[in-house]
Design goal:
The chain has 8 helices and 19 strands. It has 272 residues and is α+β, with helices and mostly antiparallel strands. Helix 1 links the parallel strand 3 and strand 4. Helix 2 packs across helix 3 and helix 4 packs antiparallel against helix 6. The longest helix has 17 residues. It is elongated, with a radius of gyration of 22 Å.
Length: 272
């Protein structure tokens, strides 16, 4: 027998039997009924080990619902009628569940989400995006990594319009929380990117340089070459020989493409 209990704007779904140990409990928080229903239907059709145990359509109802249901994963809309998904997380700290954000736009929100390496899906929700996001969540193990990402997220959500942002960099073996201001440069190697930090540390990530150019472009970074993205604050000088090089404060010599040279010179002049 299936029991459905409804009160206020909270929906709780359950049955007479306890959950299987390997079953993932999911709650969907979204102020649009169609979006909630789409996610719920897609999950039930595609993932037999996932159970949607509840839905909420506002900050108020989500804050009431989530502590009692103890979900493993929450689909969380960024923009709700009485606040934001960020408000929910702040009110429920420390966060014990994993998160996939749902968003239609909100550029400032996307920055905080991407810097913190959280998954997100865009509205309207598609089956392929939903499956890909779920697969990534299922593949990620370890509560320590999750807590580090949460710490980065709260920091970035508060400081995304200011200096001092932090970015989560995930390697095959570990997860790093790095201050953006400490990144000297990034270098591409096929589908990998190496981050060179002011401390001398190097971190290799299995993502292309274009992804980080998009993420860091508004924070003082400039792509001088197909393979190189630099933090402008670490430029020591520009050398015109051999087509043009940027010399950074650590003495590294970075080639500048002909196509980017004039724009770089304009940017450098603008720094003075």
């Amino acid at each position: 027998m299936v029991l459905i209990v409804y009160f206020a704007d909270i929906f709780i779904f359950g049955n007479n039997f306890p959950n299987k140990p390997d079953e993932m409990r999911v709650v969907v928080v979204d102020d649009e009924f169609f979006s909630r229903q789409t996610i719920t239907d897609l999950l039930s059709e595609s993932f037999k080990d996932i159970e949607v145990v509840g839905q909420a359509d506002s900050v108020k109802t989500a804050v009431e619902l989530l502590p009692s249901l103890k979900p493993d994963l929450v689909f969380l809309d960024v923009d709700l009628t009485d606040g934001t998904g960020f408000d929910i997380l702040n009110l429920l700290k420390p966060i014990q569940f994993k998160i996939i954000f749902i968003t239609a736009h909100q550029e400032y929100a996307m920055k905080a989400i991407k810097f913190s390496a959280f998954d997100y899906i865009l509205k309207p929700v598609s089956e392929s995006e939903l499956k890909a996001a779920i697969d990534r969540v299922l593949a990620e193990q370890g509560t320590a990594n999750h807590q580090l990402k949460m710490d980065a997220f709260f920091y970035n959500a508060e400081n995304i319009r200011k200096e001092g942002k932090k970015i989560v960099l995930k390697t095959s073996e570990s997860i790093h929380l790095v201050s953006v201001c400490d990144i000297m440069r990034c270098e591409a190697d096929n589908n990998y990117t190496t981050f060179y930090l002011a401390t001398g540390e190097r971190i290799v990530i299995s993502h292309g340089l274009k992804e980080y150019e998009d993420l860091l472009g508004n924070y003082g970074f400039f792509r001088v070459h197909q393979s190189h993205l630099i933090n402008l604050k670490f430029i020591a000088r520009f050398d015109k020989k051999d087509g043009g090089y940027v010399i950074l404060t650590d003495k590294s010599q970075i080639p500048v493409s002909q196509r980017k040279k004039q724009k770089l010179l304009e940017v450098i002049e603008g720094l003075t």
